[in-house]
Design brief:
Elements: H1 8-11, E1 18-19, H2 21-29, E2 33-36, H3 40-46, E3 53-54, H4 60-64, E4 82-85, H5 89-101, E5 107-110, H6 113-119
Parallel strand pairs: 1-5, 2-3, 2-4, 4-5
Amino acid sequence: MSIETTTHKETAQEDTQLITAAEAATLIEEGTLLIDVRSEGGRASTGAVPGAVIVSREHVEEDFSPESAHRLAQVTGTDQKIVVFCGSVNGSRPVAQKLKVLGYANAVHVDGGFPALRDAGVPTTGPTNPPAPAA
């Protein structure tokens, strides 16, 4: 009797939109549209990426749908390259998936989120509201 082992990749659905922070840094340098879906508090406590467009996860369809009267001015078309990040993939994955459903074939999201982008050398600012020092 043999015990079969499976890899994480075999057991989990492969996320074809997930890229490394280093890959994202290259795309950002090339002018790819960068979307930050973190909360205001998340940005204040950890920092921000200058030039990133702030998008609420609840308004993705409104902000990106080609038919929307409220589509973001930075969105040029469904062939546009888009990098989405959050604090982790749990926040960015649903947004990247929604963009793909809306027709954005070049929408990806960052493994490790904002901390990984910062560690990969992407310019950041902040935090603007650092944690209070211990008493």
